[in-house]
Amino acid sequence: MKKPKKKRAHACRRASELISLSLDRPLDRAERRALFWHVVICSSCRTFRKQVESVRSFLRADGTAPLPTSFLDANLSDDARARIRAALESAR
Ligand SMILES: [Zn+2]
To answer: Measured in angstroms, how far is the CA atom of residue 63 from the centroid of ligand 1?
Structure first.
């Protein structure tokens, strides 16, 4: 049985918060567990987490790393791609 949309949206919002929070500090055990079980069943949040991790590793890189594959594969307009690339470059 599928979860009602409202419950799923709440769970996805919480997962997104945890993914973003993980950029600022390590997640505690309960947070890691909640996120783990959510991304097991939610491909959208799994993709979002992968993209966040790609951007994080890109920002930590020495400046010679190629752009993350998920960034290159994402369905973005050329304009959006250029804006993101400029933001990433200026964040280095
Ligand atoms: Zn989700």
So the answer is: 31
What single DSSP character describes residue 65?
S
Cα 73 to chain centroid distance, Å, stands at 14
User: Could you list the residue range(s) of the whole structural domain that residue 33 is in?
Assistant: 5-91
Question: Mean pLDDT throughout 2-31?
Answer: 88
Rounded CA separation 37/29 (Å): 12
Q: Which of 12-21, 28-37, 47-56 has the lowest mean pLDDT?
A: 47-56
Model pTM greater than 0.85? no
Give the total number of structural domains in the chain: 1
Which residues, by Cβ under 5 Å, contact ligand 1, an ion? 12, 15, 42, 45
